[in-house]
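Here is a protein:
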Amino acid sequence: MILVLRALGVGDLATAVPALRGLRAGLPGRELVLAAPAWLAPLAELTGVVDRVLLTPGLTGRPVWSGRPPEVAVNLHGRGPQSHRMLAATRPGRLLAHRNAEAGHLAGPAWDDDEHEVRRWCRLLHWYGLPADPGDLALRRPPAAAVPAGATVLHPGSKIPAKRWPADRFAALARTLTAGGHRVVLTGSADERDLAARVARDAGLPPDAVLAGRTGLAELAALVADARLVVSGDTGVAHLATGYGTASVVLFGPVRPAHWGPPPDRPRHRVLGVTDRDGIDRDWPGRGGVGTHPTLAAITVDEVVTAVDEAERAVRVSGAIAA
């Protein structure tokens, strides 16, 4: 049995898909158990390789496993030491993880802060002689759900306030896209429902355009899979758009797209904001709860509309080539 720790969020799990598939391919015939929050189970199923989810709300300091020791434990959660110790407590036959002397784990590659999240975990597997393709990001199509098909999804929220493009600009964007023939809907968590409702009101959208707090993860995946377009900050819904090949515009700041962005060779996914030449502003106070990052505040509605046109043009071109 393979026990994999990735007790984080939607984007975190989506970026670990290539590594999970590499584990399945490189260690066949074994049950693959993902230690993650229970609410991520629908997305884990859509990876096509996770056999079951072990309820793990986070790094609690307790062993995540009480059964027989796993044959292999894999840390796709972080650099350690706490996550290393959490897995080591299960007494695995092998622990695949980054090198961390504090945790007593001297094998594995060194951690690299300046690395894309997808490639980070692929490189970990490569170090242990296992395959992993960083481009293997596609998710399985979710079951049919009672969500609108062909909608343009705007996602104004983020758990980190610094990553939120101003709400009034989302409203202006929604008005422009609606005038251009888009059916705009607004997504978010239950905590972001008021934000989405305010954007909808200011954009002149009907109340049923607000889907924030009304979709579970499976329904959100179905919505994105069949969407015309997604516009969001650097958050989980952007990674769902990448996984389903849905045209997207992702607004970055303070983190660089070189660390969390969509593959740069896929023109239907456009990025704005922080460039790969910019550093990470780790001390920006918005990360602690106040204020939009300056790189996001500098993005205009016209820039986003242009990026939307570019992303949709790329979809049309790829469709013409396929035909």
About this structure: The first strand starts at residue 2 and ends at 5. Residues 279-290 have pLDDT under 50 and may be disordered. The beta strands are 2-5, 32-36, 52-55, 72-75, 94-96, 152-155, 184-186, 229-233, 248-252, 269-273.
